[in-house]
Amino acid sequence: MTITATELKTNLGKYLEMVNDEEIIITKNGKSIARLSKPESDRIDLLNSLVGVAKKAKNMSEDDDRLERILNR
Fold first, then answer.
1. Share of the chain above pLDDT 70, in %
2. What is the rounded distance in angstroms from the CA atom of residue 26 to the CA atom of residue 8?
3. Do residues 32 and 6 both lie within one domain?
């Protein structure tokens, strides 16, 4: 969802609740200036992007690999 900075200021509480369901892009003068998203979404996206990059053990599944990385942070 894309909203203006003015709209965000006017209805901040509403958008803080909505961010649990979707990312919100904030614009000013027609240009994107910020993104409002859940804090853990960036971490999860980053971890998912690393799948297959790290060398994994023969008997380790992809889910086990993700869990191990999460627990070791």
1. 81
2. 8
3. yes
Q: How many domains does the chain have?
A: 2
Q: Same domain, yes or no, for 66 and 45?
A: yes
| Greater pLDDT, 71 or 32 | 32
Residue-number span of the structural domain to which 9 is assigned: 2-36
Q: Is the pTM of this model over 0.85?
A: no
Shortest CA distance to 35 belongs to which of 22, 48, 25, 44? Answer: 25
Q: Closest Cα partner for 5 from 24, 25, 22, 27?
A: 27
- CA-to-CA dists, residue 55 to 17, 40, 50, 62, angstroms: 39, 24, 10, 11
